[in-house]
């Protein structure tokens, strides 16, 4: 039997629609923290679950105003002994460079989604939430966006991120061209102050993921 995911139905807005009304930096900080918690929950499953299409449109807001990582259209369950490949990438503005231009390897002919490619998408989503616009909004062609990402270009951080050194450093590290230089979701949560001395917030995490 193939593994599957059962998702709760949400009628609320996505995070981009929600932050048009609730647009304080404090609210946005809380929401990006909740997204990180959800991502950490996915990645620490065994085998890890890779979202594959994380972006603002795929983060819903529940009735209490909390972020819920949703829309697992490209979600992958990664076996510990081998990579899982997929033919279709997520929206390019949030997609890691190694997915759009994977290294040549005769044994792995298709792009490989990993926890680190999810982290790149998370960084672009954080930018999207704080900037109030999609990454590379000045580029109308997806081809130009792809070339920019492969060339190492990144969106200019808005002042609301730039003025917070910890957040700015976190975003720039998370969208690093080198996947090995990106932090994992657990490290992101720790740097956002979302862990405690007695361990992870497992009960809290369950409230942020409809699984």
TrEMBL record:
It comes from the Eukaryota. PROSITE patterns: PROTEIN_KINASE_DOM, PROTEIN_KINASE_TYR. InterPro entries: Kinase-like_dom_sf, Prot_kinase_dom, Ser-Thr/Tyr_kinase_cat_dom, Ser/Thr_Kinases-Pseudokinases, Tyr_kinase_AS. GO terms for molecular function: ATP binding; protein serine/threonine kinase activity. SUPFAM superfamilies: Protein kinase-like (PK-like). Pfam families: PK_Tyr_Ser-Thr (PF07714). This is Predicted protein. It comes from Laccaria bicolor (strain S238N-H82 / ATCC MYA-4686).
